Amino acid sequence: MQKLALSLMLFGLAGPTLAEDAISTDRPDFTESPEVLDAGRFQLETSGAWQKQKSGGQTTRLRSTPTLLRLGVGHDLELRLETEGALRQTGTSQPSSSGRGDASLGVKWQFSEGGDGRPTLAWLFHVDTPSGSGDFKGHGLRPSVRIAAEWELPAGLSLGAMGGVLTDRNADDQRYTAALASASLAIPLNETLRTFVELAAEQLASSRNGGKVLTAGTGLAWLLSRNAQLDVALTRGLNRNTPDWSGTVGLSLRF
């Protein structure tokens, strides 16, 4: 029964108006979209993800299931619940560990609609909660604030940008504040397929607080119907503080 419902969701809604009111997601890139869901709409964005890093002759791998739930509650507002899901970390010189990632509660507020060269703009307010398990449980509440912008460009291109500030705790359990920034260019290949290229500073902090986390990424998003998207992305770390390679395959459904 579940497979039947999923099949209907993926393929039953495709048609001539596919490009009209199509699903807008916050994945697979790091840069968030400023678009919000219509009131009463619910969206699931889930995936499988992996990371690999070599350092000092040792290799560490991390697998996770990042998931974002979004609920439209007004013309310009949505509620959000996000988690890294189930995680498993393995290493050549350390025991494997498994657990559940922390949950993050948030809201997105679109305060300006784009047009005539103006970007669409939205604030995102989130707080990470110490709700995970094992080695993946964080310490205390960690709030963050981001601003997302998107410009519509000629030839169907769009440019997204994001900046923000986050708080976290370092290895000594001391609270610190860091910045983040990113830019992503979306390039349509046809009516249902697009690619993107992105540069991101996922964290800008001092070395004692994890340092700079810098990435370059690309990927594809395939619009299966007005309410369904399949995507894939690959990210390369640009410095020693960042995993060498990261990848993700995701599915997004709007109800």
TrEMBL record:
Residues 85-104 are annotated as: Disordered. The keyword Signal applies. Residues 89-99 have a biased composition (Polar residues). Keywords: Signal. Residues 1-19 form the signal peptide. The keyword Signal applies. This is Transporter. It comes from Roseateles depolymerans. The lineage of its organism: Bacteria, Pseudomonadati, Pseudomonadota, Betaproteobacteria, Burkholderiales.
